[in-house]
Amino acid sequence: MASVTYEHVTxxxxxxxxxxxxxxxVEDGEFLVFVGPSGxxxxxxxxxxxxxxxxxxxxxxxxxxxxxDVPPKDRDIAMVFQSYALYPHMTVAENMAFGLxxxxxxxxxxxxxxxxxxxxxxxxxxxxxxPKELSGGQRQRVAVGRAIVRNPAVFLMDEPLSNLxxxxxxxxxxxxxxxxxxxxxxxxxxxxxxVEAMTMGNxxxxxxxxxxxxxxxxxxxxxRPANLFVAGFIGSPAMNFFQAKLREQEGTLWVDTGAFRxxxxxxxxxxxxxxxxxxxxxxIRPENIHDPQYQPPGIQxxxxxxxxxxxxxxxSEVILHLSAADPEGILAExxxxxxxxxxxxxxxxxxxxxxxxxxxxxxxxPQTEERLGSTQxxxx
Length: 380
Ligand code: ATP
Fold this sequence. Notes:
Layout: E1 4-12, E2 17-26, E3 31-35, H1 42-50, E4 57-62, E5 65-66, E6 77-80, H2 92-102, H3 107-121, H4 136-148, E7 154-158, H5 166-183, E8 186-191, H6 194-200, E9 203-208, E10 211-216, H7 218-223, H8 228-233, E11 240-249, E12 252-256, E13 261-264, H9 266-269, E14 279-284, E15 289-290, E16 301-313, E17 318-324, E18 334-340, E19 351-357, E20 362-364
Parallel strand pairs: 3-8, 3-9, 6-7, 7-8
Antiparallel strand pairs: 1-2, 1-4, 4-5, 9-10, 11-12, 11-14, 12-13, 14-20, 15-19, 16-17, 16-19, 17-18
The chain binds adenosine-5'-triphosphate.
């Protein structure tokens, strides 16, 4: 077991900087997920740690050993690739045993380790098969098994579930989380899928254009995203954003979008008074907009009039697409999405009032895109 540290790590290719000055410490035994859109530098970050890419500047440590110049095989890591990279001409048992054989472990020990791990992963009955005789889910387990038998200090996983269908992915996600808890080893996992990141990571490192945007627990990323990008990336359906101005009227602070105005409750307003008269971006998640008929108790309701353009029945909830027009009809309509109670009677083309929970909003600076009042927890 070991911690991992990236210290001012940069990776440059000829005309691209894939990773800019990455600083992050992954604690011993932690499950850290790198997440971000395609091309954000997450795979490159993992491959530098694995020793498959050289580091252009900065240092990477596994435990307290600087590994920049240590060959991959001596780094005490095991990696599961998206493609699984199983040897097609070898059986499952031979694939799993391969790394141990190279290291010269005694035959009896190899056999016992392979059998033990195969049993734990439920693939014992497949040990004699070749990869082509396995389903996608079984291949994925073999790839994980091959990593586990090596008993490494750190597990690296690069999109190991992306070849599985949706149902299997949910199951495999839970299996990997369980495995992490049982082994207690440091896991570093790369995915573009924010749901995977949220459900599996102890902490999540969100990247964009080679730069780390925020690293924190799933709960903090969700409730206090550091900037507009993280706010829009984490959560599905995505957070709604509105261009707005902050105004003061009779001692109350208001968010004015042009189409509608929302009062900021006094107990939330303190960090924002300094922005009166300024443009802001107001953010609210779809689940914090309610059908007033079914609004939960204890929220800070503010009513907004809007027309329902689409209603998606999901069974456990209804996703409403709404548009709010300003009273004079001058501004373009403001589109937004609400996740409401499935018993809602709101229908397409109907004008309705929905309720924004003003205890659960976010404000961002339109220029810097940073969160405003970020030191203040808006809600827990
Ligand atoms: P994906 O999810 O698509 O794999 P990613 O976030 O993992 O994306 P990286 O593969 O780390 O992104 O790539 C980061 C940037 O570095 C991209 O702009 C990519 O084009 C560039 N890049 C990656 N490998 C090389 C290479 N060998 N030569 C030149 N540029 C590269």
